Amino acid sequence: MRIYRQRIKSVNSIKKITNAMELIAAARVIKARQRASEAMPYTTALTRAVSAVATNTSEDHPLTTDVKDAKRAGVLVIAADRGLAGAYSVSAIKRASELIAHLQGEGKEVVPYLVGRKAVSYYKFRKRDFAQEWSGFTDAPTFENARDIADRLTEDFLKPTAEGGVDEIHVVFTLFRSMVRQDPHVLRLLPLEVVDADSEREDGLDLSVNQYEEGQLAPEYDFEPSASEVLDLLLPKYVRNRIYTALLSSSASELAARQRAMKSATDNAGDLIKRYERLANQARQAGITQEISEIVGGADALADAKK
């Protein structure tokens, strides 16, 4: 009985913690979803503008031109700082591992960039090298965090591979689709993939260049001061904003996953408490039955002695 009471007390304490974490995640995920939703229109418009410039000019800009025989590829992995979020971080890291294996199969050297303590601890525990780490903000990222990451990635992309640069950059993040579905997603960030026709991308971005009805003529573009200078201005903004959008989507996914995981843990704790209460009742009833049996046995023994 004492052991069961101790276990019930311990599980009750854990249940209170998981219930509190579920409520906190439920309150924060609403704001995270709103931030991710509000950032999407600007990201779509900016990406469309960059695609329009790149499509309507013959300018060979470093950020839009594919490198022949690419040798090094950078992979930005976005995971969580904290656990207790189900398979959120594991799914992102697993998807990144699949991408890295694919790139290595193409003969490319992979340079990982890590966001979140879970990704950092995964690589450090396995003694794997990575270029840089960022942590401490995965559940509430700011634009300054995205700018720090984007500036480092852009710097390495523009740097020659002989000096430690990379020829292409991929981002692995968790795409928020709904409260019950969050999917690991891979985005090739650089060089920019230009989309010429109307299309709805898997990550929800409409990268259409031609936004005109059938029968209308698409306008001709004239850039001032030059297409190269326009791209120089737009592309850094594009990189920062895409990373910021990926961080916001990952943040909403992390909180949604944590809410589900904590709800499941709370429900399991309730079931475990009921099980321990049944076992405790059975133990109490067995003790009472044993005492009654001992009393009856003692009374029978006294009656036989008097005879």
pLDDT < 50 runs, ≥5 residues = 196-200, 207-215
Give me the CATH fold name of the largest domain: Pyruvate Kinase, Chain: A, domain 1
**CATH superfamily descriptor of the largest domain:** ATP synthase, F1 complex, gamma subunit
Please state the overall shape, judged from the principal axes of the Cα atoms.
elongated
Q: What is the correct CATH architecture of the largest domain?
A: 3-Layer(aba) Sandwich
Q: What's the main sheet like? A: 5 strands, mixed
Mean pLDDT: 85
Give me the number of helical elements: 5
Pattern of helices and strands? HEHEHEHEEH
| Percentage of residues in strands | 5-15%
- Return the domain count: 2
| Rg | 29 Å
Report strand order across the widest sheet.
Answer: 3-2-1-4-5
Please estimate the helix content. 55-70%
Q: Indicate the CATH class of the largest domain.
A: Alpha Beta
